[in-house]
Design a protein that fits this description.
By secondary structure, the chain is α/β, with parallel strands linked by helices. The protein is built from 14 helices and 13 strands. The protein binds glutamic acid.
């Protein structure tokens, strides 16, 4: 039995659709029953549910998801209410109340808004209300999007200090080969570390009505794992799945977590979108990874992307592996001018100097 007090359950659109590709009342009811079953055993659930756009398509009789972002936003606006009504009805049958929370990435990036979010989630749970979260698709555009709910659910698991992230999907788990090509493909039951080999196994599946695929699920598992939270990917239509997972049954794929990051490091690692990349030489890599040092201009070889001072960037080693994330003290154009130089040369070259370091250790997380 897993030691779980709070779980984030992410429900993909594909889990909610019936054979006619309509949001299935039975599936939503099944979910409500499961949440009730684990609640009776003292476990709190937070749901991250997709399905707004699919529900809007159904309401307006559309078969194909429109390409235009404005139309998708309009569909989500129509569909989200209907989706929530289904959730409300289904949960009421189990004597449970739900509370809707719609988010864009801006709400997590801003410390005060994220703090409000933490408080709201805690307060809903303390009032025995089940939070049902979705991306605020009606308002979000590229710059402020999470992009997919796998990613959002991992962030929610971290923000809410949950003990488990459960991704309910229409696949059985992560396979050792592409199951669409190889009928003898097997489910990998435990992944200890998400390395290159595991990432290669993830095949992006993008159907008409849902977003994401294994790629975004692995990203989510990685994020949750860095914060010490295990992730399990399972089929959403298996009977009693939530309780069975918590009981510790070996279904689907379990991604084991790594050590937990401190909360102050969490902001640097996850709250921001990555705006650019820097490549560092071997000397700098050793100093950052093994000696706890800051990044100085001398160790930088290449800069990619157009970013400003104060934005989040990734630091890569010479073989292209991401070794760290951090908040940069200098813009990409500044770094292009001072890369490879000693810190003393910064002011001479730029005419000003914010700091000796390009990324200070305190604003950096080694990945
Ligand atoms: N937020 C989208 C929706 O409700 C789905 C995003 C996703 O499935 O990842 O339709």
């Amino acid at each position: 039995m897993l030691n779980v007090k709070r779980v984030v359950i992410k429900v993909g659109t594909s889990v909610l659709l019936d054979k006619e590709k309509k949001i299935s009342t039975d599936m939503v009811r099944n979910l409500a029953k499961q949440v009730k079953a684990i609640k009776d055993k003292g476990i709190e659930s937070i749901i991250v549910s997709s399905g707004a756009i699919a529900s809007g398509m159904e309401t307006l009789g559309l078969k194909k998801k429109p390409k235009e972002i404005e139309k998708r936003q309009a569909l989500a606006s129509v569909g989200q209410i209907k989706l929530m009504k289904m959730y409300m009805d289904a949960f009421e049958k189990e004597n449970l109340k739900i509370g809707q929370v719609l988010l864009t990435h801006e709400d997590i990036k801003s410390k005060s808004r994220c703090l409000n979010l933490m408080n709201t989630l805690n307060s809903l749970l303390s009032m025995n209300i089940v939070p049902v979260i979705n991306e605020n698709d009606a308002l979000s555009f590229k710059e402020i999007r999470f992009g997919d709910n796998d990613n959002l659910s991992a962030l929610i698991a971290q923000i809410s200090n949950s003990d488990l992230l459960m991704l309910l999907s229409d696949v059985d788990g992560l396979c050792d080969k592409d199951p669409r090509k190889y009928p003898d493909a097997c489910i990998i039951s435990v992944v200890k570390k998400i390395d290159d080999k595991i990432e290669k196994l993830a095949t992006g599946t993008r159907s008409e009505k849902s977003v994401g695929g294994m790629v975004s699920k692995l990203e989510a598992a990685k994020k949750a794992g860095c914060y010490g939270i295990p992730t399990r990917i399972v089929r959403g239509d298996i009977e009693n799945i939530a309780w069975r997972v918590i009981k510790g049954e070996n279904i689907g794929t379990l991604f084991q977590p790594e050590a937990k990051l401190a909360r102050n490091k969490w902001w640097t690692a996850f709250a921001f979108k990555v705006k650019g990349k820097i490549w560092v030489d071997e000397g700098a890599e050793g100093a950052l990874v093994h000696n706890g040092k800051s990044l100085l201009p001398s160790g930088i070889t290449t800069v990619e992307g157009d970013f400003s001072r104060g934005e989040c960037i990734e630091l890569n080693n010479m073989s292209g592996q991401v070794i760290a994330r951090g908040i940069t003290n200098y813009s990409s154009s500044d770094i292009n001018k001072i890369k490879g130089l000693k810190s003393v040369a910064i002011e001479k070259k730029l005419g000003y100097k914010y700091a000796e370091e390009i990324v200070h250790r305190d604003n950096m997380v080694i990945i």
